[in-house]
Amino acid sequence: MAARPRPTTWLSLLVLTTVTIFLTLPLIAFLLNAFARSWFYPQLIPQNWTLEAWVRAFSPQSDVLQALGNSILIAGVVTPTALLIGLPAGRALGLYTFRGQRLIEFLLLLPAIVPPLAVSMGLTVNFLRWGLAGNWIGVSLAHLVPVLPYTILIFSGMFNQYSLEHEQQARALGAKPWSVVCYVTLPLIKPGIIIAGLFAFLISWSQYLLTLLIGSGRVVTLPILLFSSAAGGNNMTIAAQALLFTAPALLLLLVTSRLLSANTVSGLGRL
């Protein structure tokens, strides 16, 4: 006879179910509103459906496609740049001990500790002076400020548990430095690269204040457009743009989880 689940198991399932419903309800509400021509209380679901919001969103006269392209461009530039900078910096912090290390770690955390408005205003003053405001290059550089601390600290934590013996063995067998990096180091830290890349993309993708100030109103991304649409009060338009804003992040999160699962399985297979 099968053993009955323990009370703690039922409690865990109840908590998990409650949290799942709490997190998915806003997405369900957005999904329904995005296709609802009218939805009034006490209707449980909309009675009239339409694709009007989506036709407007993807029409040639709409700003949605341009905002989506700007968001993808900026996040697509920020993510690999943050990985290229964060990997060697995190390796140095994680593998080696040197004078002033704690101070550097504290300074890395400052952009996450200092109020975002103060950081944004300080960057805006300097970027205006340097001629970097009002274009996507300046916005991308500004996004690196909140992104880099997370990527560097993720790599630092990974390299803190990293053993140099694998690289030393490869060099002893005659592998060249670039081969050691490509075939030893990068495969071993692949989970850290995936997680750091996910954080970098999501942080850049969701930036509103930095984009608004550094972009000077000329660089319109999805968060900027979404806040602007929210002031208009059209629930159907707001819901459609919110889903467009959320979809790439959810897709990337799903792909990342699959990659991490595949990497875990392959790692166990080598044991």
CATH topology of the domain at 75-164 and 171-221: MetI-like fold
Strand content: under 5%
Q: How many alpha or pi helices?
A: 12
Give the low-pLDDT segments. Answer: 267-271
C-alpha geometry = globular
The CATH H-level superfamily of the domain at 75-164 and 171-221 is MetI-like
Overall residue-averaged pLDDT value? 86
The termini sit apart by 36 Å
Largest sheet: 2 strands, antiparallel
| CATH structural class of the domain at 75-164 and 171-221 | Mainly Alpha
Q: Give the % helix.
A: over 70%
- Structural class determined from secondary elements: mainly alpha
CATH architecture of the domain at 75-164 and 171-221: Orthogonal Bundle
The helix/strand order is: HEEHHHHHHHHHHH
> Nearest-angstrom radius of gyration?
23 Å
Strand line-up of the largest beta sheet: 1-2
How would you characterize the overall build of this protein?
The chain starts with 6 loop residues before the first helix and ends with a helix. By secondary structure, it is mainly alpha-helical. The longest helix has 36 residues. The protein has a two-stranded antiparallel ribbon with strand order 1-2. The chain has a domain of 141 residues: MetI-like fold, CATH 1.10.3720. The protein is globular. The protein contains twelve helices and two strands. The C terminus is likely disordered. Helices cover 77% and strands 2% of the residues.
